[in-house]
């Protein structure tokens, strides 16, 4: 791809220009000629999902330098600039491409691939009795389009329900009759925001694990905060743009996985989830984290890759003394930045000790040591 300047001229007033990227043209207007190339890259980040350090801007065959102004770079009104993106250096799920389709859910659509003939499961008396006796209901990969009535017949006997990889669109009010339910797996279904009866779901006072990965959720209700027994909450690969403030009420939460969404800010009340051990918010649109992350003293693992983060909470290394795993690959935070963060030395010592123990005990997948961030 090539770009050229036709009719571009510098007049001293604010300028407009266009950036060509992946087959589309992005207009940028009302820029001061004293703006730097780095400023321009920051403007392009939310429009392309490409991190500034992954952008190469070329104008009139010349690579533009971050510290120089538009005027110094001879970028004038009407200039056309070409953007080339480095592989992997993006926020969210990837660069925004020409006529990008809605991000597909990363699973096979059972309703399509398995045909329409198998839409319900036969539950005989023996199977129902076994469900009631064990408290475990396994209905994964059955191409279900509704939760079978026999599930509700288990009532207070049900402790674990596995309904992942189906085509279930609705979680009805009947879910509330499963009063002893502890684990509910509903990943990879066709659940929308308004198809979960949250009033009934949050009445399950013994629920410790809730998995809603790979559905079509764009928002979570404040009622989520009523699930005060929850220890694990999985809602990755949806379309969430935020988390409710009430998530701070989940003080027993140990594992939070919200990766591969569209979350641009984390609520400050996340710091009230004192029990958190593992959190994965990778592949989102975060530019910063709240300082309250430092309150999560039990944190051991934090995955933040593929976000627009430029810095970490100042107390993360000083206060989170259990932290041994930190993934910052494909962010704006490089190893040079990390090494200048207060508390880095102690954190680095802990994680290297953990890795050595894994090698000593020959733990699976304990290969080469990962620095946790890009070198440059």
The order of strands across the largest sheet is: 6-7-8-9-10-11-12-13-14
Report the CATH architecture of the largest domain. Alpha-Beta Horseshoe
- Count of separate structural domains: 2
Assign an overall shape: globular
Describe this structure in words.
It is built from 8 helices and 14 strands. It is an alpha/beta fold and 376 residues long. The strands form 2 sheets. Strands 6-7-8-9-10-11-12-13-14 form a 9-stranded parallel β-sheet. Strand 1 (15-21) and strand 2 (24-31) form a beta hairpin. The longest helix has 17 residues, at 344-360. It is globular. Keywords: Leucine-rich repeat, Repeat.
Please summarize what this structure is.
This protein is α/β, with parallel strands linked by helices. The protein contains eight helices and 14 strands. The chain has two domains: about 15-85, Roll (Ubiquitin-like (UB roll)), CATH 3.10.20; about 110-360, Ribonuclease Inhibitor (Leucine-rich repeat, LRR (right-handed beta-alpha superhelix)).
Explain the layout of strands and helices.
Layout (H helix, E strand, L loop, with lengths): L14 E7 L2 E8 L5 H12 L6 E5 L2 E2 L16 E6 L24 H4 L11 H10 L1 E3 L10 H5 L6 E3 L20 E3 L12 H4 L7 E3 L20 E3 L20 E3 L20 E3 L20 E3 L12 H4 L5 E3 L7 H5 L4 H17 L16
Entry keywords:
Leucine-rich repeat, LRR (right-handed beta-alpha superhelix); Ubiquitin-like (UB roll); 5-stranded mixed β-sheet; 9-stranded parallel β-sheet; alpha/beta; 14 strands; 2 domains; disordered N terminus; 8 helices; 376 residues
């Amino acid at each position: 791809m090539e770009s050229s300047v036709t009719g571009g001229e510098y007049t001293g007033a604010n300028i407009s220009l266009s950036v060509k990227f992946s087959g589309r043209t992005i207009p940028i207007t009302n820029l001061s000629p004293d703006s730097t190339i780095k400023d321009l890259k920051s403007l392009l980040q939310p429009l392309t999902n490409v991190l500034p350090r992954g952008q190469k801007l070329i104008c009139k065959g010349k690579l533009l330098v971050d510290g120089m102004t538009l005027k110094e770079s001879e970028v004038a009104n009407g200039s056309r600039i070409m953007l080339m993106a480095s592989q992997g250096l993006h926020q969210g799920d990837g660069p925004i491409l020409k006529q990008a389709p809605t991000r597909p859910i990363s699973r096979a659509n059972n309703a399509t691939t398995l045909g329409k003939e198998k839409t319900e499961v036969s539950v005989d008396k023996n199977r129902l009795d076994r469900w009631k006796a064990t408290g475990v209901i396994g209905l994964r990969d059955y191409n279900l389009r509704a939760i079978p009535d026999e599930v509700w017949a288990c009532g207070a006997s049900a402790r674990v329900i596995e309904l992942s990889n189906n085509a279930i669109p609705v979680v009805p009010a009947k879910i509330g009759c499963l009063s002893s339910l502890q684990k509910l797996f509903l990943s990879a279904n066709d659940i929308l925001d308004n198809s979960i009866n949250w009033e009934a779901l949050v009445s399950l006072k013994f629920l410790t694990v809730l998995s809603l990965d790979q559905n079509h959720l764009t928002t979570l209700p404040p009622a989520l905060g009523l699930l005060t027994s929850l220890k694990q909450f999985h809602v990755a690969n949806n379309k969430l743009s935020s988390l409710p403030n009430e998530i701070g009420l989940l003080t027993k939460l140990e594992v939070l996985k919200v990766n591969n969404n569209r979350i641009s800010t984390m609520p400050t009340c996340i710091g009230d989830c004192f029990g958190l051990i593992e959190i994965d918010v990778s592949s989102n649109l975060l530019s910063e984290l709240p300082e309250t992350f430092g309150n999560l003293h039990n944190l051991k693992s934090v995955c933040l890759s593929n976000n627009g983060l430029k810095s970490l909470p100042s107390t993360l290394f000083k206060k989170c003394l259990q932290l041994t795993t930190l993934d910052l690959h494909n962010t704006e935070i490089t190893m040079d930045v990390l090494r200048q963060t207060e508390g880095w030395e102690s954190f680095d010592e802990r994680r290297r000790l953990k890795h050595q123990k894994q090698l000593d005990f020959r733990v699976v997948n304990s290969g080469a040591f990962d620095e946790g961030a890009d070198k440059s």
